[in-house]
Amino acid sequence: MQVSKYPCSMVLNDQMFRNDDDAEKQIVIRPRQGKRLAYIMQCLAQIYRLIYNDQQSTKRDLFYEQKKLYKNQANLDRTITSICDLLNEARVALNIVSSSKGILFGALAFMTSEGKLIDCRSQPVLISESLENFRLISSTQFIIVVEKDAIFQKLIDEGYFEYFPRSLLVTGKGYPDLCTRKVLQWIVDQLAVPIYGLFDSDPHGIEIMLTYKYGSSSDCVEGRHCHVKQIQWLGYVLIYCGCIIHNAMLTITRSFPTADTCGSEFFKCLIIIEVMFRNIPCR
What we know:
The structure is a single chain. The chain is of the alpha/beta class. The protein folds into two domains: 31-97, Orthogonal Bundle (Arc Repressor Mutant, subunit A), CATH 1.10.10; 103-278, Dna Topoisomerase Vi A Subunit, Chain: A, domain 2. The protein is built from ten helices and 14 strands. The strands form four sheets. A six-stranded mixed beta sheet has the order 9-6-12-11-13-14. Strands 1-2-3 form a three-stranded antiparallel beta sheet, with helices on one face. Strands 8-7-10 form a three-stranded antiparallel beta sheet, with helices on one face. A hairpin with a 5-residue loop joins strand 7 and strand 8 (117-119). The relative contact order is 0.09. It catalyses: ATP-dependent breakage, passage and rejoining of double-stranded DNA.
């Protein structure tokens, strides 16, 4: 903590935590920002307690511990993001975890320190960051990530594992949250097996694929390095459109947005498609 060059301001910087070559990061507390300072100091105290006691907690639990101070969840969320940025650490490194909507099912199991078996072969298992603390038991040869929960269930119901018993199915139920990406990255690193993704060949599917592969801009501070760079797109992509014979196509029954109505998002999508698939041959 130091006196700021800004009159009557206070600065929290990362001088104790960075190397000489790293750019300085700081939080400036200006006049009339007493509440923000209180949020930061209280949150730092909560983080210190978690790390010192080797405990983990969710954002929601931390909020309810000091609900009178934080007033609403958004105040705590912004504070945690600022602290992660200041310390140049992912949120999980501060022992603040999150619940997940992701699911695992297939040739994988986890053995807890108490000897309890969490078996993904018998039923779908909800992804949680605590899984990284357990020992992996695996016969997995490859991992398939599917975009939607409905497709995930459909594959299971249609006997997918009769054909591929030594695979692991994963879904983030749409856009993958930070916890899903982090645990999936850990599993891939531990098992060293190929990972493939089945996604819709539309702007949403492309964005979901890129979120798995490169992370999300919305949580880039808290979720640094939480992405699966090894994932490969598996299946139909738009560049294959010219390979489909005309009489195999369905008739369009409704109008779709054009470049004029979509604006810049339309062209962003075209650029992404061009960059990702320009070298894919037509088969």
